[in-house]
Amino acid sequence: MPEDKNKDLSSDEDYLLFRESMRDVKTLVKNERYIFAEKPKPKPVKKNLVIETSPTDLFTQETNTIESNEVLFFTRNGVQHKTLKQLKRGNLIIDEKIDLHGLTQQEAYQLLLEFLVEQTSQCHRCILIVHGKGIGSLNNRPVLKNLVYNLLKNEPSVLAFSSAQPRDGGTGAVYVLLKSI
In a 10 Å sphere around its CB, with 0-12 CB exposed, 13-18 middle and 19+ buried, how is residue 65 labelled? Predict the structure, then answer.
């Protein structure tokens, strides 16, 4: 089978041209990789934000019937179904978390109010509140779980909340979706 001489010359010329154009290129070591520096999160300007729930409002709309292993869920109108699904599954990024274990009802109430103000002012979208299951509570009625439920349900900055996945505390914690300001 005769070979085409023009084809060989063309490929040789291409090869030589390529080698000539690459003569100043240095071979990279395989293990070297450029690592991009992480950009710091932007820090929002703090606004004077006041939570509109007062202790009297909280206790007038209170329910004290939630049990230790009961799953919590609440949503306001207008929250997208997809977002609620992500919240329930624990698929939203948790910006911050607070643990209320060991606090009295009044301490937990005050700390939770301050925490909500801080998280809303920092434009955080999803937070995790660990309230515990209250298994040792009288009549299996967990005090902090009921407090958290009542406060969040009556707080205008809260769009929705749902009991957490087992990896994040299960029925002893809630994911909270906050309104962006």
Answer: exposed
